[in-house]
Design goal:
Blueprint lengths: L40 H7 L4 H18 L4 E5 L1 H5 L3 H9 L5 E5 H13 L6 H4 L9 H12 L1 H4 L3 H10 L10 H8 L3 E4 L15 H20 L5 E6 L4 H15 L7 E7 L4 H9 L7 E6 L2 H13 L2
Helix pairs in contact: 4-10, 4-14, 9-10, 11-12, 12-13
């Protein structure tokens, strides 16, 4: 016999109710439906369950469609990983079809985009190269990118525009796959936000700290002007940037509001293969106004971005 003084609770006189009378968070009306491959892709979206991320994804697409209809900004902030996993053709198609009205990149983004345009390949094996000091020492990358950046002030341009112009006017074999060249050709404002010391071109002999700083600072204030136009139903999408671009976005929103501008009605979304602190706080939650909504979609970019593009194209 147990020597405990306290006894187990009795199940007698438990109050129950009918399952049929209970409110539930999931009903069969919310269930997924089987998609037939002979149907239009738009029906695939309709077949997603109206539950959690499935419901959020549909809502995100609706907000993107509305922003395009109302001609509000659709800003895409792209981490370099988007380029490294081969998504340039997808991003360029979204630009050409009017889904992207402006873009922001970090410093690594221009490097990978440039190397794709010039050589058709990018992304070296860092672990091997850093051991002998050869990491980041590609001559053309450091030389040509720094030459373009050093000319930005005289051209009254930021980094995004001057690199786009340089690639678009070059004889690079693969420039048709350059996001920056496409943005320049399509007149889509593109900003580049650099943290000095983070990119391989920063230790090249041609690097000029003054030119680099002035050009990226110009891009920041251009980015602020772009984000001001999110008001009224615009959408800001952060894809694959865990630190730099979410931080830049948060500061831009604060700067705009400090100047007396109202930012209450815009939406944000993050696409990334991990759930990161800064994108969650600085993109999805902190910046939003009273009428805004934030989304966070976790999954491999090489799958999620083409899925998003195909979904938008089917609307």
């Amino acid at each position: 016999m147990s020597k405990y003084k306290i006894k187990p609770f009795s199940k007698d006189r438990l109050k129950t109710y009918s399952l049929h009378s209970r409110d539930s968070k999931v009903t069969i009306d919310d269930f997924a439906r089987v998609f037939s491959p002979d149907k239009p892709f738009s029906e695939f979206i309709d077949c997603l369950p109206d539950i959690l991320a499935g419901k959020d994804f549909k809502s995100f697409l609706e907000r993107m469609e509305m922003a395009k209809t109302m001609q509000r900004e659709r800003v895409f902030a792209l981490g370099a990983h988007v380029i490294k996993v081969g998504l340039n053709p997808v991003i360029i198609s979204l630009m050409e079809e009017g889904w992207i009205t402006s873009m922001a990149l970090n410093g690594a983004g221009i490097i990978h985009d440039f190397e794709i345009a010039l050589a058709g390949h990018t992304s070296e094996e860092v672990a091997d190269k850093v051991k002998n000091g050869s990491f980041g020492m590609a001559q053309e990358t450091g030389e040509l990118l720094n030459e373009a950046i050093n000319s930005a002030e005289s051209k009254d341009m930021g980094i995004g525009e001057v690199i786009g112009e340089s690639i678009e006017n070059s004889d690079f074999v693969h420039k048709d796959l350059s996001i920056l060249a496409a943005a320049y050709r399509l007149n889509i404002p593109t900003t580049v936000h650099v943290a000095i010391g983070t990119d391989i071109i920063h230790f090249h002999p041609l690097v000029d700290g003054k030119a680099l700083g002035l050009a990226t600072l110009r891009d920041f204030f251009l980015f602020c002007s772009i984000c001001e136009n999110l008001e009224g139903g615009g959408v800001f999408v952060n894809a694959g940037s865990a630190v730099i671009l979410p931080e830049v976005f948060l500061k831009a929103i604060s700067f705009i509001r400090n100047k007396g501008k109202t930012l209450e009605n815009f939406s944000t979304a993050v696409f990334d293969f991990h759930h990161h602190y800064r994108p969650d706080k600085n993109v999805v939650k902190r910046p939003l106004g009273e009428k805004g909504r934030g989304f966070y979609f976790v999954g491999h970019l090489e799958i999620m971005i083409p899925l998003m593009a195909a979904s938008l194209r089917s609307l």
